């Protein structure tokens, strides 16, 4: 899982992220208390993976200037940097969500149950995990399902919008 996340794609290979794997029961207990309706998902999981995005634009610029080719750095400077701080940070978040999608697909392929969670208190996650220069965006609870798990599609089918409402073929 760690290598899958490390190799996740991002625009210009920007990688404005940090992934924190939490299996420690005491830490999971603290996180569960700031996870709203996801308390049981945090406690019942084997591991929580916290997805964070870099929060300091100048640190990000230093990172890409040290690690990326000139063309990628120039793309950032020409197309992303002129935008507002909020827009730049939203762009960072989009990159993190790409990695979340990759993780969910990999978990499905590996037979590992994964539940993405935005219903958490990001600022409190940051404090509990001691994150500096990064901000929590989302978390994913992973593990293997219990036989009596009511979320199994065979017990409780997924509820999704009608195919014709979400798929268009041209």
UniProtKB/TrEMBL annotation:
What biological process terms from GO does the record include?
A: 2,4,6-trinitrotoluene catabolic process
Q: Name one GO cellular component term.
A: cytosol
What does the record give under GO molecular function?
Answer: oxidoreductase activity, acting on other nitrogenous compounds as donors, with NAD or NADP as acceptor
* Limits of the Nitroreductase domain: 3-144
Mind listing the UniProt keywords for this protein, alphabetically? NAD
**Classification via InterPro entries:** Nitroreductase (IPR029479), Nitroreductase-like (IPR000415), Nitroreductase/BluB (IPR050627)
PANTHER family tied to this protein: NADPH NITROREDUCTASE, OXYGEN-INSENSITIVE NAD(P)H NITROREDUCTASE
The name under which this protein is listed is Nitroreductase domain-containing protein
Annotated source species: Kordia algicida OT-1
């Amino acid at each position: 899982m760690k290598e899958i996340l490390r190799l996740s794609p991002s625009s210009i290979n920007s990688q404005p992220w940090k992934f924190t794997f939490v299996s420690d029961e005491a830490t999971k207990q603290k996180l569960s208390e700031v996870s709203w309706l996801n308390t049981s998902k945090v406690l019942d999981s084997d591991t929580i993976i916290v997805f964070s995005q870099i929060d300091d634009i100048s640190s990000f610029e230093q990172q890409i200037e040290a690690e990326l080719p000139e063309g990628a750095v120039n793309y950032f400077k020409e197309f992303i940097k002129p935008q507002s701080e909020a827009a730049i940070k939203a762009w960072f978040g989009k990159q993190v969500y790409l990695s979340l999608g990759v993780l969910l697909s990999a978990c499905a392929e590996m037979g590992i149950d994964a539940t993405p969670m935005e219903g958490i208190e990001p600022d409190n996650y940051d404090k509990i995990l001691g994150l500096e220069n990064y901000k929590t965006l989302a978390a994913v609870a992973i593990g293997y399902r219990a036989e009596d798990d009511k979320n199994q599609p065979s017990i409780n089918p997924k509820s999704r919008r009608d195919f014709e409402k979400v798929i268009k073929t041209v």
